[in-house]
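In the design runs reported in the main text, the only information available to the sequence generator was the tokenized backbone. The following block is the verbatim input for one such run; it is reproduced so that readers can re-run the procedure and compare outputs position by position.
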């Protein structure tokens, strides 16, 4: 199916895509917050390790979200 752009999607599919992109935006914000913890030299070692684990989970979730968006589009 050739890409027809945003308006080529049925309205219900546009709403679904918007929800997925909002989720990606939230993941990006969470990633940035955790990256700041990792980069802060004053962060406790445990907090930095937890933030690194969270970043890995966020990256997997983001990849899954983008895969869903592209598969539906």
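Verbatim output:
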């Amino acid at each position: 199916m050739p890409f027809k752009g945003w308006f080529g999607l049925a309205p219900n599919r546009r709403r679904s895509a918007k929800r997925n992109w909002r989720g990606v935006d939230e993941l990006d914000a969470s990633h940035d917050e955790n990256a700041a913890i990792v980069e802060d030299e004053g962060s406790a070692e445990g907090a930095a390790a937890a933030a690194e684990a969270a970043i890995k989970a966020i990256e997997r979730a983001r990849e899954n979200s983008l895969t869903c968006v592209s598969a539906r589009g």
